[in-house]
Here is the input.
Amino acid sequence: MMEEQDIIKLSEKLVALNIIREELIKSELCPKQKIFYEYNVYPLLLSLYYLSYSTLNFSHAASFLNTMNFGKVSQIKELLDLVKGLQGISEDVLHELEKQLQCLIKIYKNP
Here is the structure.
């Protein structure tokens, strides 16, 4: 089951990645760097954003159903299983994003 602290950590990482994205956009990238960012980094950032947004929404829905005694236990468990699955995918995307950012930094240092 995904804990609130896991959601907070995921949100914090997403904020940090958005700061990196904004800094990269502000910097004047050469065409090679810009192409690498657009094809290798930005899609991962966007995917991570949507995954974290979905995770938060499903987690809140499960919490709401649980506190209102409105849903069946099986429905709540299905939502929490979905959240756990999305968390695993998010971690994979984040790991790949970190690798791509390292590559971008190397390209940036050696244009």
